[in-house]
Amino acid sequence: MTPAYQWLTSGVPLPELDYERLERWIVQVADVHNRKVRSLNYIFCDDAKIFEVNAQYLDHHYFTDIITFDDCVGSLLRGDMFISLDTVRSNAQELGYEYIRELYRVIIHGVLHLCGINDKGPGEREIMERAEDEALAMLDAIN
User: What is the pLDDT, as a whole number, of residue 121?
Assistant: First the structure.
């Protein structure tokens, strides 16, 4: 079963990324968590769109960097991820990180959610951050 990816946009240009490299990375991260990538849809958008999606589907009335919709079946990863490039950019500036590095972190953050890692409960944020750091180290090793 070959993984299927869609890299889409809503109101923003598609970021200039090495998507083949990212797809190899995502498969490796999924493998570490005993999952297989089946179908992942990334929708890059602006703050207005992510606010709209957050309000409509989650009844949250605030901006966020990513919203992950989980459609996984067993160990097969399937899902839609909306990423606000505006929020990624502002978070990177606020934290003093490179924009591209923050974008990679957010891209894999959604995958880690699909792998079952949460970040809202006690101690979960630290587990997610550790998983993100480990995943980013894996990306650095991929040519």
Answer: 85
